[in-house]
Amino acid sequence: MGKIVLDTKKLVKSYSNGKKKLDVLTNLTLKVKSGEIITIMGQSGSGKTTLLNILGTLDRPDSGQLTILGNDAMDMSDKQLSELRNRDLGFVFQFHHLLPEFTAFENVLMPAIINNNASAKEELADELFHYVHLSDRKDHLPAELSGGERSRVAVLRALINQPALVLADEPTGNLDINNAKRLLQLFKKINSEFNQTFIITTHNPQVAAIGNRKLKMVNGRLRINK
Q1: N or C: which end of the chain has fewer CB within 10 A?
Q2: What was the pLDDT predicted at 226?
């Protein structure tokens, strides 16, 4: 394990619904080192997605500290956070969110296109498609791909900018058993061969089992998942 990629201290997040207040995160602390696979287990509504959105700077906590690669995310502007997200973070969601009018290859390059360095990433994109055995599918539109193929394309998109950390929210939740197994094997392979760091949220014990650090959400905090 290497350097600290992400460090949080005492994250607090709550939502108000009329007169009621829902506490989602309560003084939550997490430190992530490069090369780790951290799985966070919890039932629907436990706060896993809220936590991942905050760690990915898609949402802000009410209070607490969040440091990503030495950058104080709490003190950054929206523009700076957007640049950090695109440069240093990758996202994989339960629903792949591929752009339907673009080919698989173009979808994978989209973060690089936003970053104005797509041409520099085309060779890497080709290598990644070969790596996951999809070279013959890269010119297909998402509608022409199977569910498992779309999930692999979404993972490649998360990897194209070679991020320090990939955040995956229920990544197998929309897949059948066989494709879910293939996706988990891909995560482990990428972690092993590229030292890629992952935080994966799930309600599935089989997904949680791939973590070399297994945590669970309990009353707005993280506990060791035994």
Answers
A1: C
A2: 65
